Amino acid sequence: MTRLGETLAAYQARDPAARSKLEIFLLYPGVHATIYHRIAHFLYCHHLKFLARFVSQWSRFWTGIEIHPGAKIGRRFVIDHGMGIVIGETAEVGDDCLIYHGVTLGGTGKDQGKRHPTLGNNVMVSAGAKVLGPFKVGDNSRIASNAVVLSEIPPDATAVGVPARVVRIAGEKVNFASSVDQIHITDPLQKELQAITSRLEFVEQLLEEQSHGARG
What we know:
37% of the residues lie in helices and 19% in strands. The chain is built from 5 helices and 16 strands. The N and C termini lie far apart (93 Å).
């Protein structure tokens, strides 16, 4: 009950539309999904995986939020609206995290074992964002709406775009210009010319061999 009380208080603190803890408990699908997940995760950890999956699928049907029973969810987890959220089996979510609707904490299909991301503490993932792969999003980071995160995000960072890039760390803009190597840069025109030259040499050699064959 202590965890439930913490969760209800967290919703109240983060959602200005929440009028009472009773309203949050009875009417907020994010709370219901979290409660169902606690049950499913307990069953999953005790090797009752069919029952665990049954509970999670019922939760998905009832709330529109799909959390795999194997996922690890921290304290005071807040799901705002929640419809369309998917959290994978090996995902880990730290304490005090906030996730909006349409978020996916998923995999790329190329990894084995740990396939899904780890969110640190106090991470916010905005609506429609996709975090894909077995890396960590650092504490206090923010993922913008509809961003697609494919690599690790440092603590206190803000990431935006497709694929996502860090634009702020600890409130300060990231200075990309200072990190650009302006000397060792690949010249795309030179690469194209080299490819054309190699192809011409190959064709000339092929024609020469055919000419010698015809003479013989």
